[in-house]
Amino acid sequence: MKITTATLMDMKSKKEKITMATAYDYASARVVDDAGVEMILVGDSLGMVVLGYENTLSVTLNDMIHHGKAVVRGTKQAMVVIDLPFMTYQVSKEEAVRNAGRAIQETGAPAVKLEGGEDMAKTVEKIVRAGIPVVGHIGLTPQSVGQMGGFKVQGKNEKVARQLIKDAFALEEAGACSIVIEAIPRQLAELITEKLTIPTIGIGAGVNCDGQVLVYHDILGLQTDMRPKFVKQFGAFYNPMVSAMQSYVQEVKASSFPSVEHTFTMDDEIIAKLREKY
Ligand code: KIV
Q1: Model pLDDT for residues 113-122, shown as the tens digit of each residue
Q2: Which residue ranges does the chain devote to CATH 3.20.20.60?
């Protein structure tokens, strides 16, 4: 059965933890979906972990749609959420609705995610009114990395903590179906989770959120670059992958690959005739 926004609400009411992981193509979506993860985020972290940019700001809506389509093709059960990239929803509500519409219409995913709290509530409301489920994202919002002065924990002081609570309420009131809460103190995430009726999905926000999200490459240990404090690697596949690739290189160079078992053959008579002629 496909996971829907109703499934997520049901899971929150039963205190069943929700899992979300990112995926960026058909192959990664199959891994995540086969593992039973309920929500797949086609995150704009795509820019950093797949496309090699320094941050998420260069990712375009066309990038998200291209990768989103592949993820949807690789997904049977999970609810796929497409991240709206930088500058596709900030300029006007109308543009936001149009771009959210493109994201779901062209990929076949049911929902979108955007960053921002109270300031984005009216935009979220418009998109929801157009019939598109929206996942909010507050706390550390990577598209505002310039304004935040880097990838830093948010909400440690009372003023920012109060604003984050307001942000969460504003998104819920605007009709968001769940909220990603990134890099805030666990006590604050717990308070927000208790007060909201919609599920919170934490990343660097402690164990008391309704669910957790991590980036595919971080879960599997597929990269050796920056690793934030809140990331736990559940696998360490980078080195084994490099080592498999090295074995391939060595065997090709030594002419030990392909061996007979990986080779097609033909009648000796036919090849003999061909050799005579040519
Ligand atoms: O883009 C992304 O991968 C995200 C998650 C880190 C929540 O927004």
Answers
A1: 999 999 999 9
A2: 5-237
The residue whose two tokens read 């090699």 is 52
CA 48 – CA 109 distance, rounded (Å): 22
Residue 8: which residues within 8 A CB-CB, separation 6 or more? 18, 38, 39, 79, 177, 178, 198, 199
Distance 212 CA to ligand 1 centre (A): 11
Q: How does pLDDT run across 53-99, given as a tens digit for each residue?
A: 999 999 999 999 999 999 999 999 999 999 999 999 999 999 999 99
State which ligand 1 atom lies nearest to the alpha carbon of 214: 6
Using CA positions, which residue lies closest to atom 8 of ligand 1? 43
180: closest CA among 219, 138, 145?
138
Q: How far apart are CA 252 and CA 168, in angstroms?
A: 56
List, in sequence order, every residue forming a beta bridge with 139; answer none if it has no partner. 182
Q: Going by CATH, does the domain composed of 5-237 fall within 3.30.470.20? A: no
Element (H, E) at 203: strand 200-203
Q: Is the dihedral of CA 189, 191, 192, 198 positive or negative?
A: positive
Q: Would you call 182 a catalytic residue per the annotation?
A: yes
- Phi and psi, residue 84, nearest 5°: -80, 120
| Residue 173 to residue 122: CA distance in whole angstroms | 10
Rounded to an integer, the average pLDDT of 247-255 is 98
Is pTM, for the whole model, over 0.90?
A: yes
User: Pocket residues for ligand 1 (CB within 6 Å)?
Assistant: 22, 41, 43-45, 83, 180, 182, 203, 213, 215
- Single out the catalytic residue among 182, 251, 269, 276: 182
Q: What's the CA gap between 105 and 82, in Å, rounded?
A: 11
- Atom 4 of ligand 1, residue of closest alpha carbon: 43
Spatial contact of 79 and 3, defined as CB atoms under 8 Å apart: yes
